[in-house]
Amino acid sequence: MNSPPPSGQDDAVLLGLVQRGDEYAMAALFDRYSKVVYSVALRVLRDPAAAEDVLQEIFMQIWRNPDGFVATRGSLGGWLAVVSRNRSIDALRRKRPMESVDDMALASNYNLANEAERNSLVEKARGVINLLPVEQRKTLEMAFFDGLTHSEIAEMTGDPLGTVKTRIRSALTSLRKAFPA
What we know:
This protein is an all-alpha fold. Mean pLDDT is 84; it is low at 1-5. It folds into two domains: 1-99, Rna Polymerase Sigma Factor, Chain: A (Orthogonal Bundle); 114-180, Orthogonal Bundle (Arc Repressor Mutant, subunit A), CATH 1.10.10.10. α2 (23-45) packs across α4 (76-95), α5 (112-131) packs across α8 and α6 (134-144) crosses α8 (161-178). The protein has eight helices and no strands. It is elongated, with a radius of gyration of 29 Å. One of its GO terms (molecular function) is DNA binding. Residues 29-96, 130-177 form the RNA polymerase sigma-70 region domain. Belongs to the sigma-70 factor family. ECF subfamily. It comes from Tunturiibacter empetritectus.
């Protein structure tokens, strides 16, 4: 059963009760607005645990100081969304490294020359794949990047199984010619 959306007056009454220490009123506010606060924090932080921390901080702030919200400036839900966004941004700023990048010694397990060569080969392969006819490229991508079998590709595209196999074989032949041994 859907209940009507909360009005500003309902929020004001609940905040007044919270000011007097009413835990049930605080629970009602939490039930009403926790999803908004959490979703805004999660969108900014991209970390569920950090978003939960922001959610807890904000509702603890309301519990300690319910006068922090001024009803003449807007709705409680809007205010909570803005506070959640601001607190989340502050949390991101606190996470930034304190040491200067120049002072950090970075160890690398990678051979940078091999990595550069691999990246060059990957770029060349992408270029060759982009030059393939559209049907061959899409079929090759479905097989190798989406992990589909030849039969699954045939079912999805409506093409005969032999056509799917020929397209993949032709695409691989083109790639082989671009990379002599």
